[in-house]
Write a structure and sequence with these properties.
Structural class: alpha+beta
Number of helices: 8
Radius of gyration: 19 Å
Number of strands: 15
Shape: globular
CATH architecture of the largest domain: Alpha-Beta Barrel
Bound molecules: N-(5'-phosphopyridoxyl)-D-alanine
Strand content: 25-35%
CATH class of the largest domain: Alpha Beta
Length: 284
Amino acid sequence: MSRVAYVNGRYVPHRHAQVHVEDRGFQFADAVYEVIAIRNGAFIDEERHLARLARSRRELKLAAPMSDAALKLVLRETARRNGIRDGIVYLQVTRGAAPRDFAFPKAAKPSLVVTSRRMRIADPRLIANGIAVITLPDIRWKRPDIKSVALLPNALAKQQAKEAGAFEAWQVDADGNVTEGTSSNAWIVTAKDEVVTRKADDSILNGVTRLGLLDIIAREGMRFVERPFSVAEAKAAREAMLTSATNGVLPVVKIDGKPVGQGKPGKLALKLAAAYRDFMDGAA
Ligand code: PDD
């Protein structure tokens, strides 16, 4: 089956899908996006993704390209035309194409691009083995709570992780506290079996998986606190993990080359990874 993309009102062959050279997403990263997991044909936590998209747009005074109801149809049709029942749908809204000028154009129409591709969501092998992270300074702008496509610092950090043989890079603020991964949220479990993740303020993206896992933790009556944690605390933690739409919950077994806990996936991380997978399977 050949791939298809949705671009501004048309479904086109993926290899010919294009936006204008003066699209502000291309020129200024003046755009927001979402990545939604599809599992057994179900769109996982779609409402929360669309609510976050609307918030990101509002923060940037970016108009909606269409209603949420219409957008849901386009997301489904794009997945359907690509034959995707397990993978992701990616959507990006830009301020549109206009002669290059930093200030907002008066008459630009927002662009909407949607793609979909197969992917192994919450890969069981990664969950079973756990993954390694490195830490490095968080050099991003001060509003990572907005899911904008201005992802160059994230891309540079991920590349550094890859070159170090790690799966993810945890970014660290000026106080030595972990903010989040390049495309995931960061968590630890303390010696008292308390689950810790940073509060969702301006310094991180409020992950949809993060919110889903918080629901599960509350339901299970587990000990939990939202607060910053330092790199030193993470390295000394009993367990560590990360969350994202594409990975679900993944145990972190190494930080900067040093084992976390026993150097294998922790008991709570595995329990939460399984609970999150059950939640996704229940959506189908
Ligand atoms: N990234 N933090 C950052 C910086 C992210 O880019 C992401 C998601 C997350 C986790 O959010 P969620 O649980 O809603 O996926 C946290 C997506 C998957 C991406 O850019 O591919």
